[in-house]
Amino acid sequence: MHAPLILPLGAALSVISAALWTPAVRAAAGEFYAGKTLEIIVPSGAGADSYDTLSRLVARHLGRHLAGTPSVIVENMPGAGGIRAANQLYNVVPHDGTVIGMLDESIYQNQLFKVPALKADVTKMNWIGRIISNNAVLFAWHSAAVKTIDDTYTKPLIVCSTGSASQLRWTMLKRLLGLKLNLVTGYKGTGDGLVAMERGEVEALSMPWPVFRVTRADWLRDKKVNILLQTGLDKASDLPNVPRLLDLARNADERQILELFSQPEKVGRSLTAPPGIPAERVAQLRAGFAATLKDPRFVADATQMRIALSPLPGDQLQTIIQGSFGYSPAIIAKAEALTQSVE
Predict the structure, then answer these.
(1) Domain-by-domain residue ranges, the chain?
(2) 231 class by beta-carbon count within 10 Å (0-12 exposed, 13-18 middle, 19+ buried)
(3) Which residues pair with 73 in a beta bridge?
(4) Nearest residue to 89 via CA among 127, 145, 138
(5) pLDDT digit string (tens) for 115-149?
(6) What pTM was estimated for this model as a whole?
(7) What number does CATH give the domain 11-133+265-337?
(8) Which CATH number is associated with domain 136-260?
(9) Are 77 and 303 in contact (CB under 8 A)?
(10) Of 15, 61, 212, 264, which has fewest CB within 10 angstroms of its CB?
(11) Whether 111 contacts 191, CB under 8 Å
(12) Would you say the CATH fold of 136-260 matches that of 11-133+265-337?
């Protein structure tokens, strides 16, 4: 069992927050939020996965750190691998700071690859901050013929894929490297996928490692699963022998493509707001989020839930999102071709 790791936001964020969160901004924002409800849109069902769990954790504490002390609720909006929630946040909800969202971490890839269903521009959204990064792991049930990722070159593996990130990633691996991954996309969330594994309906699933190692510690202890692959750019310290996506590359182009598909790890579980929100309200949301993650009551809740926080301030997250579109047109075209049937 690994002890939870609670990481500080850092001095830089404190300076930024202090600079933005002036008395004038506090007064104006307080007049706006007083008596209002702040809604967090989540791209999955209630209790389905870490998107919902972490959104509800933030919702319990965020209102205390926004002047006017609004109520904060979570609105579950599953569908289309997270695209439905993104479209709702971008096109439908008020662009006034009363609705924010925790979008699927790979939503920018849907935009990069021009997925037709996506009607949003993530570079124009106002990114508020990250709760955790997401070094996800692909794990297989102990009875599956596949015991290591190398086995998938010759043996089929039935993989439950419930979100856009995993659908894009595993489809890409099938086509780029020839892995024999058979995707099943009908389950509503990770929770349903875990039950399906126990029932023998699917053989493999992916989840954030910081979440999986806590919520399914008994599976690891009892050797019910084999960890096949990790998706982050950096290896988890407690998975030194489990390969990353990048480790599967056979040449320079493949390495760039696999790096591109590892980028969602940086976005992880983050909050964002629609475009067009007044700058002072974006500043308030970022400062309120930063204060929430340092609140002793929030930290106590996260510790009890054994959540390993890895926060990142909104301005840095915004830079990461912008930088995700910096790959060469040739590499983007190759990556897009590998995912064309995923919508």
Answers:
(1) 11-133+265-337, 136-260
(2) buried
(3) 39
(4) 127
(5) 899 999 999 999 999 999 888 999 999 999 999 99
(6) 0.75
(7) 3.40.190.150
(8) 3.40.190.10
(9) no
(10) 15
(11) no
(12) yes
